Amino acid sequence: MSSDVVTKKVIPIQPVKSGGKDSSEFSLYEKTEKVYPRSVSGQFARLRWVMVWVTQIVFYGLPWLQWNDTRV
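Above: the chain sequence. Below: its structure as tokens.
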């Protein structure tokens, strides 16, 4: 038999100290970046706001309409 030995590369996991009160706590996950909202402008943003207003007016205004002396 030949002496072909397959060696696996071992990558050690380095724990990172967390910012907690207890200095013995370690985190194996990277802190996620925060997502900040930004202002959006354009034709579709304007159309979205128009549709929001139209649907809200229909939703809140429809109960006030009367047809044939009955409420809708």
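The mean pLDDT is 81.
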